[in-house]
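Data availability excerpt. The first of two example chains:
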Amino acid sequence: MTSTATTQGTAIQDLRDWLNRVEAIGELVRVREPVDPILEMSSITYLVAKQTPSPAVLFERIKGYEDSPIGARSLWNLLGPSFKRIALTHEEPVDLPRLELIRRVKEKMNRRIPPREVAPEAAPIYENSLFGDDIDLHQLPIPKHWPLDGGRYAGTADVVVTRDPDTGYLNLGTYRMMLQGSRQTGLYLSPGKDARLHITRAWQRGETVKIAAAWGVDPLFMVVGSQTFPKNISEYEFAGGIKGEPIPVVRAKTSDLLIPANAELVVEGEIRPNSIKKEGPFGEFPGYYGRPEAGCPLVDITAVHFRTRPILTNALMADYPSCEQSAFFGVARSARIWSDLDRLGVPGIHGVYAVPAGAGGFGMTIVSLEQRYAGHAAQVLALVAQVPGGAYYTKWIIAVDEDVDPTDIDQVIWAMSSRCNPIDDIDILRNTWSTWLDPTQNPPEKRPYGSKALINACKDHRYLPVFSKRTTLREDVYRSIAARWHQLGLPGEVPTVRAFERDEQAVYHETGAFEPGAHQASTGPAGAPNVPDLQREDEGNGNAFMM
């Protein structure tokens, strides 16, 4: 099956369009029985995410909110571990090979298309609006994710819009927002995040910060809002570049911000100077609870806009594969790192993969390269460890040769086992950029400094001409078999092969043969006959299990 996000002739227009296409590929489950937003929805999501395939889950009846005038529904496991849904979200064929998907997303992230402002009457988000005393966030089924969470969290699969007080550019970020009252939420921002910088600079001037948060979005906004882009270009432009057309936006009602015109639900608010309230803890992306309760900016909600029967989007943070960000980070973060290497002019890169199972896609990065000069692999390892797209948190950076698919963990482990000599090929970087959420850094005062292991699992460049020759298929034989695969009655699709036999001389390093006298024999005690060196022969007899 070859299905694309543009089978209807246009790019995905909103979350409802996205859901229709997800349902068409069989990856949406609609739950029509009442489900509690307190721990039940998140628990179901945690379990569904461990299935294969793992569908998105739309809760259509939410316990305790049957009579809510807003009538909100709740969507979980938006992308989850599904690379089909991730491809669809990026307007790509759902059966695209993983590394090719990453390459295409890399190219799309280099394109920028400014947003297109539409009139308020043309914006679906303004179907319904509430202001002032009419606002009551308790009418929304805002969930509690984990038993020890500090409260109920909206805005986990959201996009928060702020304006840079110096340059005026609009930033989109994905941040959590804990319910703090009928018209108040928290806004948690990690150190260095753009919105936090905007708030800090505004407060230094004694100014109130205007914000807007879309709590029901096309998943592309969650993807773009979670990535690191230049601080002087709006993420609206990068989202447009990926989608291939301008993002429709509309002027907010209580500020000059531009909000997604096709969003499901948007809250507008303001953060007064030094307005802070305690928030947390929260179950975080590594699969552990984060920091204890601490102060964060307090948002006073000034308006709520929503479509009829809006759909709230939620992201569960957990161990893999139940962590919402894991797989899409495996695409978006890989593309960002690969793009950074391209901008630096590093040659020979064949692929980059931020492994989804590695703590939300942060913990491990694999890069495939064609070694072209001395020190090439070491250079690439050091750069992948520190480029803007890859420096945060990552602990394990692994380099493999171009004949290894970095998205195939079996091949990567094979390369580590057959091409990496640990005493020579592992280096450590210390005092690197990490996170307060890293549970391995103890006592906690050591955070947010971390370390990185650089693992060179490439063939030793010094000995490339004499490195043991890999067993590979002849390409003509492979293509002949592939053409007759189903005719031969073989199951599934033909596996992809990256390395084929090349016309070059093999170098053999083993010596010895079984026949006495065919190689240098061992010399026994004086007067004893020579006997074959069977110990050496056993090391290379091709039957390691025979002792």
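And the second chain:
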Amino acid sequence: MAALPKVVVVGAGIVGCAMVDELTARGWGDVTLLDQGELPLTGGSTSHAPGLVFATSPSRMLSRLASATVTALNALDHPDGPCFLPVGGLEVATTPLRADELHRRHGFGRSFGVRSEVVGPDRCAELHPLLDPEQVLAGLHSPDDGLAKAVRACEVLVSRAQSRGATVRGGVRVTAVTRRGGAVTGVETDAGPIRADVVVLCAGFWGAALGEAAGVDVPLLPLAHQYVRTSSVPGLPSAAAGREAVLPVLRHQDADLYYREHGDVLGVGSYDHAPMPVGIDELPPGEMPSSLPFTPDDFAGAWKASQTLLPVLDHAEVASGFNGVFSFTPDGGPLLGPAPGVDGLWVAEALWVTHSVGAARAVARWIVDGDAGMDLHEGDLRRFEAPERELAAVAAKSARRFVEVYDVVHPAAPPGAGRGLRLSPVHDRAVALGAVFDVASGWERPQWYEANAPLVESLPQAWQPPARGPWTGRHWSPTIAAEAHATRTAVGLYDRTPLRRLEVSGPGALALLERLATRKVDRPVGTVVYALLLDESGGVRSDVTVARLEDSVFTIGTNGALDEAYLKDEATNGGDDVAITDVTARDACLGLWGPRARDVLAPLTEQDVSGPGGYYKTRRLRVAGIDVEAAQVSYVGELGWEISVDASEASALWDALVRSGAAHGLVTAGAAAMQTLRLEKGYRSWGTDMTREDDPYQCGLGWAVNLKKPSFVGRDAALAASQRPLERQLTPLVLDDPAHVVIGSEPVLDAAGETLGRITSAGYGHTIGRCVAYAWLPAHLAPGDRVSVAWFADLLSATVSTEPLVDPDGAAVRA
């Protein structure tokens, strides 16, 4: 039996303590926990964290990690008392926008299994008697939220880990992660080197510096956040009960504030100040380096707002305060999982107490078993593209996340910082056409083109988009309907450059891809294959297109940076003689789709593009005197090609296509139109509609799994899944009222109001004149069954549908 790995966990905050507990509970006893501070108050963020745990989030992953944290903390026993105070949580709205947002957040809770209730002002005052109900329009009460006693929990977790053989050393500063070749060998400390096979960074905002020393980007920004304690507050229930806290944690997000009891005083946390970035070298020496001096001028507005909501504070004052340092990331998510390029190095960083123990449990399972037990792609360290990891971009985007932490942020809102990181070779053409951009993998991506706005008036009546409400009308334009109409009836030109493309080449390329893909890749040169990448449990790790350009050269259309990391890991682990190169920026990719696409392309090339049989084929063409690779594939369900061209010639190709298309109704079209068109065709979007938690048969993609293929990763699990009756499946819905639109994450309810499932993605299907949604629902539902979708405070009727809704026999795309 092989010896168990030696593990070093760096950082003894709540995450690190939970990590050693989880690793040792899974049988790994040779684990050492290190911290530069003395336990239990090591001086990091855990030492001063106010302990709020709230499970409601737009992110299903974060909701689940928070719920797991509550469950774990509730199970801990400490001599001084519980490690979790189940006082509940109350979010209040003082503006109509926030009141609507509370209904939306209630919907998130229903979708993700978090109990909550939208309540009126009087009920808010019953739950939290200190607040002035005249200031409140509504509240969201979450009875299972509460307060973590993080330091107390650390003591229990460390004690359990030590009882299983773990070593715990405070007052030891880790100065570097050592490595040899592509693997860690241990850590250097101020007390000497420590050998390890696995190193886990749970160092909070110190993690970025440790990662950098190991050659790994850990994209986080330390920021200070204000917290005060008041003088004694008359009438606090906690004081009367002789307890630390009785009232629910109160969040006044319209003013960027939250409140919790500390016996006879109130704690107030504020984000109502400009971001305060902190350099590691700026931290003060001593026992609490993460606690900076309080800046009272930054708190003045927060105190005034607090006195308005909680009039009892007129009789109190700020007794003490500090600016506490913790971590923000460019997208607001945590940083979890293996470090790219360094075998044995793992991270669990940028975690708040809210998600701490749940995240540590998932990552520990991932380390030991190779499977986290849940989908963590939203938090995977490797999710960021290289430009997004640059220091300036990390600083700008992370600071923006601080500003927006309590804001009502629309899911379609483009990022407010860190823009212009990557520009397509035809970006200037898009700007000239009035493109409205969002961001995809760091790329500026057109959503629609304002130059097409005049086309809306001439749309047929059936294609006229319905009026939008104040929420669905944000970050939307009726021009999207015109671009979708042109694609369905004539031809659309799309900039697909942000689609990440990898070139896989070398003697081992075919063997690698055959080992990973669910369908046969060894087909003639010029063939394109749609396939899935599964994990060992049969979950959908990704979906890809594989184009064979030469015997040993393939181009892979992927879903992002995680796919590249996976392919490279598999190539390394399998010993394959293969090169994997990101060619996304080397080439531009243009989508030419629509029933007249062939009419646009044919005059520009001497090669024959007129015949049938080209679907899922790729060939080299010379178009307008430019060498291109043209793959006859489509993400909109219409005839056409994805055309890859050297970036230096992309503008010339774009111009030639536009000129040729003028006689055929060509319209430049954006990602928003593509989204509605793909929904009508039932094309899945990985990461939104499906993840590793879903098998191909539940996703409706069993056809993309060739079980006659003797071997591929996940084959045995896929075979077992194919033989099991479905209990849940990805299901198409059509909203009954043409005026109703939803946008994703809404709960789906039965006639009794019970939650059946959740919507993954949705958009208005302009071809059919109804909103289309995909949802995870019980498999017993059949086409024609009626359900309801909870939309803010309303219920919208919807019908289970067959799929695809447009061109069910695929004649258009194969024309």
